[in-house]
UniProtKB/TrEMBL annotation:
It is an enzyme of class 2 (transferase). It is found in: Cytoplasm. NCBIfam families: ilvE_II (TIGR01123), PRK13357.1 (NF009897). It comes from the Eukaryota. It catalyses: L-leucine + 2-oxoglutarate = 4-methyl-2-oxopentanoate + L-glutamate; L-isoleucine + 2-oxoglutarate = (S)-3-methyl-2-oxopentanoate + L-glutamate; L-valine + 2-oxoglutarate = 3-methyl-2-oxobutanoate + L-glutamate. Belongs to the class-IV pyridoxal-phosphate-dependent aminotransferase family. One of its GO terms (molecular function) is branched-chain-amino-acid transaminase activity. This is Branched-chain-amino-acid aminotransferase. The gene is bcat1. One of its GO terms (cellular component) is mitochondrion. InterPro entries: Aminotrans_IV, Aminotrans_IV_CS, Aminotransferase-like, B_amino_transII, BCAT-like_C, BCAT-like_N, BCAT_family. CDD domains: BCAT_beta_family. Keywords: Amino-acid biosynthesis, Aminotransferase, Branched-chain amino acid biosynthesis, Cytoplasm, Lipid metabolism, Pyridoxal phosphate, Transferase.
């Protein structure tokens, strides 16, 4: 939530989480709308590759250090024109977000906890030296964009409209410095399942050869460089017959994330306690919205211990050897919950227990999607 509670007296306000909202931000009330003259045909969602088809419109907001934020505008979807020396291209001064709009059986369109995405985007912008903005105003602009392209929100409870806010430094020089120009834009894409295997368990390659993030880095921010640098390892995982990378950290091979997902281990811990565990937010883990939601749901159930703790490959190996591991799964906006079936580590295939029905992963998937598609009323849903 935004919860602004402290005035700085410097043209900005500080919220309870320490982020600064620029009170000279763009305003949704100033939004200009230029509708497309023609509309593209809607795609068949069957077999549709993730993020390959885009809607008719996009939201664009420009900023420069001389005049600040300009009026936000919704315009026909199209290519961007940027300077060849653009700092986003040369120095990765760039970030993005990922969220979705869902159409319920009542034909209403909902967003899922979008204020958390706005909080994370503002934090990433601060780390990237990009200008501040009012998170509530951006969210209102995004809602309007979804409203304009509402017919693109799939009439299905197995598909959704993916929302990709993106923020670029567009400094037109080769100097490594804080950008004097920036571009914030949002595009929309109808999507089905993220993985081609659907909800089937994924296989992971665990190796300390590559590191996704490190202390003092940007692993807790949603920056493009974190993802681009991971592609090489992803293809090596495929060469080993696995679908995703299980990212390890440190000499003790701490388990951190799964591909682009947060990770959960449901097991009986070393003390004999039934436990749902996930690595703590110590600066190398992305604070996922689905991750936070799973923690809050499980804590509300009060059926087993729920904690953020360090987990190592040694912990996992011993847990499997002693038959204490119940399930392992990843979580994220794109896939929601994705069970893990196998981990390849140091030449050994570790088989992870994975029951398709009556599993914790399937229960969480149902709880979350029931909220997202409006089958369960919740304060986490925001109607468009």
């Amino acid at each position: 939530m935004l919860n602004v509670n402290l005035s700085c007296g410097t043209g900005a306000e500080v919220s309870s989480n320490g982020l600064v909202d620029n009170i000279h931000s763009f305003k949704a009330s100033d939004l200009e709308i230029d509708l497309a003259q023609t509309q593209k045909p809607k795609p068949d969602l069957t077999g549709l590759a993730f993020g390959t088809v885009f809607t008719d419109h996009m939201l664009v907001v420009e900023w420069n250090s001389q005049v600040g934020w300009q009026r936000p505008r919704i315009q026909p979807f199209g290519n961007l024109s940027i300077h060849p020396a653009c700092s986003a291209l040369h120095y990765a001064v760039q970030l993005f977000e990922g969220m979705k709009a869902y159409r319920g059986a009542d034909n209403r369109v909902r967003l899922f906890r979008p204020e958390l995405n706005m909080n994370r985007m503002r934090k990433s912008a601060h780390r990237a030296c990009l200008p501040g903005f009012d998170r509530a105003e951006l969210l209102e602009c995004i809602k309007k964009l979804v409203e304009v392209d509402e017919e693109w929100v799939p009439h299905s409870d197995s598909a959704s409209l993916y929302i990709r806010p993106t923020f670029l430094g567009t400094e037109p020089s080769l100097g490594v410095k804080k950008p004097s120009q920036a571009l914030l834009y949002v595009i929309l894409s109808p999507v089905g399942s993220y993985f081609s295997t659907g909800a089937k368990p994924v296989s992971l390659w665990a190796d300390s050869k590559y590191i996704r993030s490190w202390k003092g880095g940007t692993g807790d921010c949603k920056m493009g460089g974190n993802y681009g640098a991971s592609i090489f390892a992803q293809y090596e995982a495929v060469d080993y017959g696995c679908q995703q990378v299980l990212w390890l950290y440190g000499d003790d091979h701490q388990i951190t994330e799964v591909g682009t997902m947060n990770l959960f281990l449901y097991w009986t811990n070393e003390k004999g306690e039934e436990e749902l565990a996930t690595p703590p937010l110590d600066g190398i883990i992305l604070p996922g919205i689905t991750r936070q939601s799973i923690l809050e749901l499980a804590q509300k159930w009060r059926e087993f211990k729920v904690c953020e703790r360090y987990l190592t490959m040694s912990d996992l190996r011993h847990g499997l050897k002693e038959n204490r591991v119940k399930e392992m799964f990843g979580s994220g906006t794109a896939c929601v919950v994705s069970p893990v079936g196998r981990v390849l580590y140091q030449g050994e295939n570790l088989q992870i227990p994975c029951q398709q029905e009556n599993s914790l992963a399937s229960r969480l998937m149902k709880e979350l999607t029931d909220i997202q598609y409006g089958r369960t009323l919740s304060e986490w849903s925001l109607l468009v």
